[in-house]
Amino acid sequence: MFNHLLSLLIWLPIVGAVPVLLAGAARPNVARWLALLFMVLTFVVSLFLLPQYDAAQGGMQLGESHLWIASLNVHYGLAVDGISVALILLTTIVGILVVIGAWEVIQNKTHQYMAAMLVLEGLMIGVFCATDALLFYVFFEAMLIPMFILIGIWGGPRRVYATLKFFIYTFLGSIFMLIALLYLYHKAGTFDLRTLAALPLTFTEQAWIFFAFLLAFAIKVPMVPVHTWLPDAHVEAPTGGSVVLAAVMLKVGTYGMLRFILPIVPDAGAHFTWVVVVLSLIAIVYIGYVALVQEDMKKLVAYSSVAHMGFVTLGIFIAFMLARELGDVDTARLGMQGAMVQMISHGFVSGAMFTCIGVMYDRLHTRLIKDYGGLINVMPWFGFFYVLFAMANCGLPGTSGFVGEFMVILASFKASPWIALFAAFTLIIGAGYTLWLVKRVLWGEIHNPHVAEMKDISGRETLVLGAFAALVLALGIWPEPLIHLMDSSVTQLVQQLAIHKI
């Protein structure tokens, strides 16, 4: 089993989608229980990664390699490092919570919804395991299909517009990535990522490849100015789709930067670091102001995600400045660690925020902030969880939202106090739009008679929100296990930044 652990993780949920589909529309409960069973089994299998992966050694482990397309020298190559393990665990945990969260909400074509979620989970795990660039690209593109279906069938009134915009944006970026991969294959004769990392490239070659990769992954993150597809996708997506999109799919973009930009084009990455740093700071500051004026709760949290993911890209590329220009490897490692912790934290916090919005929407069928007010009077337990997640979204110490952002700000200060100032400014803006949202939704008197009739969260909803709360608090109070899991892998990534190919 352990020799094929990664393959099992990828294909267990994908194969599990078949009996879920066969359950059919006539047996929705069977489809629900089967989907939950396969999600739980995948999570249990993912737990075996922890004892099998040697965090102290780091590097890519648990490898599998089988010849896939002999004529092109393409391999079915899989392996994981500490960062991959953390993201896989995030994916399998969120998968369970999404299925439970949709238990009573999805009544139309339940079997197809659950099957799409299972396929999506398997494909996302595949992205985090692939060590062959073409295999990575296949998983990277295939993820679009189940998400396209989830938004297109179970989405809101403008779901067709949102799905087409989502697909066109992400597919366009992927075309540039494919062109870069074909050029690298022409030079190396293989798609193996380790071989591509060792391939000598001129600065001109690196520059073109850098921007091809950056466009593909920036759209996925998403970074300013290619972020406009995200709010529309979130608003129209069903709650489960929004949770998976924010918690896991956005991380594929930053993960791709780690696997492709850092090792393959380090000189271009170092030279154009300022581009990514500036775009990240714009996302952190400007998008925060955009969130302030939103009237739709989902749009507000979607823009919040863009701002928080700006910390991840800032932490990754600030490491270039620290390692290359200042020779400060230790602080570069701190910035990179902060970015990785922020990736995991944002997965839990944003997933929880979208789940809370889904709980309210299921009762009142509106996401407009003005339709609420005084909700704490009729839903006190829900209010408790909502305030907790809002505090985490603000970066309150003791929650997961604080740890990664604080580490990135510390590293940024060593690179430039001005960068740190702009990055830290988001804590003020984030508190502004998040607390204002909480004030208008939870506090005050009830003005809408329909709000007065709303029931507090059920046992199923308490289970989902309680799990998110436990994860947010655990990571905020004791982040050491996560940092230790990724530390050796982060150290090796930072060491790659110092490599010159020219």
TrEMBL record:
It is found in: Endomembrane system; Membrane. Keywords: Membrane, Oxidoreductase, Transmembrane, Transmembrane helix. The keyword Electron transport does not apply. The chain crosses the membrane at residues 6-26, 33-53, 73-100, 112-128, 134-154, 166-186, 206-230, 242-265, 271-293, 300-323, 343-362, 374-398, 418-438, 459-478. It comes from the Bacteria. The keyword Membrane applies. It is a multi-pass membrane protein. Residues 130-427 form the NADH:quinone oxidoreductase/Mrp antiporter transmembrane domain. It holds the Pfam family Proton_antipo_M. GO terms for molecular function: NADH dehydrogenase (quinone) (non-electrogenic) activity. InterPro entries: NADH_Q_OxRdtase_chainM/4, NADH_UbQ_OxRdtase, ND/Mrp_TM. Belongs to the complex I subunit 4 family. This is NADH-quinone oxidoreductase subunit M. It comes from Rhodanobacter humi.
